[in-house]
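Lab notebook, bench 4. Still working through the backlog of constructs that have no structural model yet. Next entry is a single chain of 720 residues. Request: give me the C-alpha cells for it.
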Amino acid sequence: MQWLRRKDPQYRAVRRAARVALVACLAFYFCRYVLGDAKMAPYALFGAVALGALSQIPGSPKQRAATIIAVLPVGWALVSLGTLLSITTWSATLGMFVLGFVLSFVGVGGPRLVGLAAGMQLLYILPCFPPYDPGSLLVRLEGLTLALVMLAIAELFLWPDPTPPTYSRRLGDAVASMAGCLNAVADYWAGDPKGRTRLADLVPAAADLADQLRPSRMPPVMRPASAGRRDRALSSAAGTARLMLGRTLDMSAADAKDAINLPASTRLLREAAACAEAASAWLRGTGPLPGTEEITAALNEFRVARMNADPNGRPSEQLHLSSMALSTGEFAKQLVFAIRISAGVPPEHADPTPVEARPGAFWFAYHKTPDLYWHRLKENLTPRSVAFQGALRLAVALAVARLLAGELDLSHGFWVLLTILTVLRTSAAETRSTLRPALVGTVGGSIAAAVLLLFPLDPLVYIIALPIVTLIGFAAGPLFGLGWGQALFTLVITLVFAQVTPVDWRIAEVRVLDVLLGAAIGVLIGLFAWPRGGGGELYRATGTFIATSGEVIRETIGVMAQGKTPGTALPRARRAGQLAEASFALFQSEQHPMALLDWQATLISGHHAVRGAETLIRSCPAGGLLPCVGPLTVVAADVAARYDRRAVALFQGDEELARRPIPEPEPVTWPTDLGQDLYVIADLRVWLDGLREDIDRIGGTPERADSVRERVAELADGAQ
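Model written out:
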C-alpha cells in the first residue's frame, strides 16, 4: 500500500479504473445477457471506455458528470455517421479524415475539449468498420446512452475523486501572498525598519505560489486556456500578478531615503495591496467582487501629488521609486478589471483601444462567447499553428489507417486506429519513445490471449475474468506504464469478443498484426509531418513575439517623445504572443531533455514589453518629450536591439546564441530641468530598465534562471 500511495497519492487512478471497469462491465453484461443483444453490448462497453478511460475530463465529480451528459448528443452523431459512412471504404476513410481533424482541432477551444478528443474519436472509429448495418443504429445508440448515463451516475456516487483546487483558488492564494509583500514594502517606506525583514520572510512563499501559476506546474486540463472570457481573464490576471510581484522586488531594492513623493507613493502602494487583498478574497470565495473605483481614485490622487511636487534639480534615480509605485497601481487596476471580467461583469464602457491599435489588452471583454471561440479557431487555422499541425497529422494517420484496413480487409481493423491513438504523439521523437512499450505490451498481451483461447473454457470464465482484467488493465497504464496498459487492454478486448462472436487463438495474431500496421503508420506520419512537434514551432513563434516586442519598444518611444501616430506594432505583438503561448503549451505536453533556455522568462519579457507600452501610451501625454528624445532613443534602441538579437537566435534555433551575454550600453546623460516631463521620463526609464533585465535573464533553465527566485535571494541577503 505504501508503494501504491507513492504512485497514486489520492488513489485517483485506482478510483477511475474501478468506476470505468464496473460501469463498462455492468453495461456490457446487461446488454449481452439480460437483453440478449450482441450488437448493443460492444457499444455499451466501449462508450464507457471512450469517456471514462480515453478522455480526460477536468473538474469536480458534478462537473465531470455534467460534461459526460452534455456530450451525449455528440456521441450519437458520431456513432450515426460511422454507421452510415461504413457503406464503403472510401466514404469511411473520408469521414475519418474530416472528423479526425475536426475533433482534434476543436481542442484549441480549451483543455476540456482537448481531454474529450480521443474518446470522441473512438465513438466514430468503432462503427465505421463493416458490416454495413444501418438497421442496427438504434441499438448502438441505446448501448452508448446506457453507458454514458451509468458513467455519469458513477462519477457522482461511486468512489468520487476529491475535487481538485480550482485555478481561481490558486490565483487567489498567490495574489494574497503578493499583497502581503506590497504591504511590507509600504511599511518599509513608512519608516518601519522591520518592513524589509518581513518582506524577506514573505517573498519566498509568494514566489512559490506565483510559480504554481505557471502552465507547466499544473495538469493541462486545469489550465485557464479556453477561448472563453473567464479563462482569458484569469490568465491575464495571473500574468499581472507575476508582474506585480517582480515590481515589488524592484521597489524593495530601490533607495527610498531621498525619493520624491514618498508619502504619496506609500499611500498608493497600500491601496494597491488592498485591491489585491479584495481580489484574493473574491477568488477564494470569501469576499465580494472588488471594483476599480478605489484604485482609480488612488491613482488620480497620486498623479495630483506628483504634479504638486517639483522634480527639477532632482537626480533621476530619486524619481524612479514613484514611477515604480505608479506602474504597480496600474497593474493593480488591470488585475481587478481582469477579475471582474472573469466574474462575467460586462465592461462599463466601450473598448477604449483605438480602432487602428486593436486588439487591445482586454479585447475579449467586448465580445460574446461564440465570437471568442470562432476567433480562436480562425487564428489557429494556419499551418503555423501547432494545433492545426497536430490535428492534420492525426487526421492523416487515422485516414490512412482506415483506408489500409479496408483495402486489406482486416477483420478487426479498428485495432489499427486504436494503435494510432495510443502511439502517435506530437513529435517523431515522442512517437518513437512510445512505440517500444506499446509493441512489447501488445505482443505480451496477445500471447497471453492466444494461450487463453487455445483451451476450450466455459463461457462463465470469460464473464468472471472480464471485470477483474478490466480493473487491473485500466489501472496498470497510469501505475506501471504504457506497456502494461497495452498488454492488459489486449486481454480485455479478447474477453469481450469471446462473448460476442466465436473466436479462436488467431484473434491474438490479428491483434499483433494490426498493432504493427498501426505503429508503422504512426511512425511514418510522425517522421514526415512536422516531426519536431511543438519545439519546432516554439522557436519561430517565440522569435516572432520577441521581434515584434522590439518594434513595440521603438514605436512607444516614438509616440511618447516625438508624437508619432501609434502603428500596428502593439496589435501584432499581441497576436504573436497568443501563438507563442499556444506553441509553449504544446511544448510543455511533450517530453524534452532539459532546455537551455528559460522559455517562460522569454515569454514574460515579451508580455512585459506589451503590457508596459499599453499603460504608458494610455496614461502619459504623447509627443511632449522632444527635449529628451536623444537619450530616450539611445536607450530604447539598445533595449530593442537586445530583443532583436534574441529573436534572431530563436529564429535560428541557436540556444547558445540566445544565452550569450550582451555588452552593457554606454551611459547617457539625462536632463534634470524639464519640470513635470521628468516624471514621464522616469516612467519610461523604469519600463526600459525592466525590459533590459528581462531579456538578459532568459539565458538559463527555469531552475537556474528564475528571475523572481534570484531576486528573492538578493533581498534576503540585504535584510540580514
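Notes after review: The first helix runs from residue 2 to 7. Residues 11-164+380-424+428-531 form one domain. Flag for follow-up if needed.
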